[in-house]
Amino acid sequence: MDARAIIAAIRDGHPPGAEALRWFAQGLADGTVTDAQVGAFAMAVLLKGLGEAGRVALTQGMRDSGKVLHWDMPGPVLDKHSTGGIGDCVSLLLAPALAACGAYVPMISGWGLGHTGGTLDKLEAIPGFRTGLSEAQLRAQLRKIGCAIVSASAEIAPADRRLYAIRDVSATVESIDLITASILSKKLAAGLQALVLDVKCGSGAFMKTPQDAEALALSLVATAKGAGCKTSALITDMSQPLARAAGNALEVAEVMQTLTGSFDTALFDVTAVLGGEALALAGLAASPEEGTARIETALRSGAAAEGFGLLVAAQGGPRDFLDRWADLLPAATVIRDVPSLGAGHVCSIDGQALGLAVVGLGGGRQREGDRVNPSVGLSDLVGMGQAIAPGDPLARVHAATEAQADAAIAEVQAAYRLGAEPVAEPPLILQRIT
Q1: pTM of the model
Q2: Annotation marks residue 182 as catalytic
């Protein structure tokens, strides 16, 4: 095999065969292909594409570039993946809810990326919580309590780690083919029998338009099925934050409120629908609607809350977290309301701007290696359609310093647009793709 010939074929609009793409994926992992060749490959794929068969082959090759887990559990092994948004803390609710319904959930998650928060950052706001487990620890925890939320080990899809780093510096992050292979190579390496995808669409998502979200969802579903995993996708709204908070400890607090009684929320509803889809895919429910009802029962009954408490304790967090979470989560030293500068109804929200405000407060990373402050962020975020008078709070800023609070207040004010007439909240679920 010759990396140059593979790159030239893609450049000329003739995607190479499966064997060549799998060889290239292995070369990513073992260094057979150079950084220059990886960058050229990524640009060729961005410009010309691989086609469906090529996406499947590259994804499988990247999956097989490292350790692929295999399970022997008394129930189906499944997971959910979100493409990222603001206030998206669904994973913390969904993993224990699925486990309460008989599934086994080895959720391999990530840290924050750009303006979106990361599941692992949220969990690390819990004192003592460990996201790095050995394979033996992961297997023991999954068998005992049915779920775990962990970081990927260096052995999982090493080809993706190298390709992702080079995409980031070669202006090729936007390639749907490469996004697809990146997401799925890690998820499929977890040995899943079923996967539900939450593709976010709107101002707080990476995919801003319904057309872009649909293109990614179609690619993800077709590729995952081509690689042998039962998969469906829901395109969900991210024109406003999903939770009323954005920031690591603040989102964990909202998760705990949802687990212990705050059921009339968008966060609850999206969690239930995604979980219902996953249960139906895995054969634990006769239909997505029946699955949604089962997830709602797990959340309302306290079974999911109990499971989350077990997960926290198993991964090094406080054993009494369910009872004392409000005292145990870190709190910011400066807390200030964001006053509205005008009057009207909230007609649009720049979710990306809100996410960047959290990053500016120290709640995310501006560059790799930055230390995250788990206590900072935004809470009490006002939603679409709400009537606002001058001086009414749009949100509450949680900051480490007064100067950071001042900057965040200005950013939040700029992120909200008011209109004279009320607008309806957009539907939470925009499209289902199977």
Answers
A1: 0.94
A2: yes
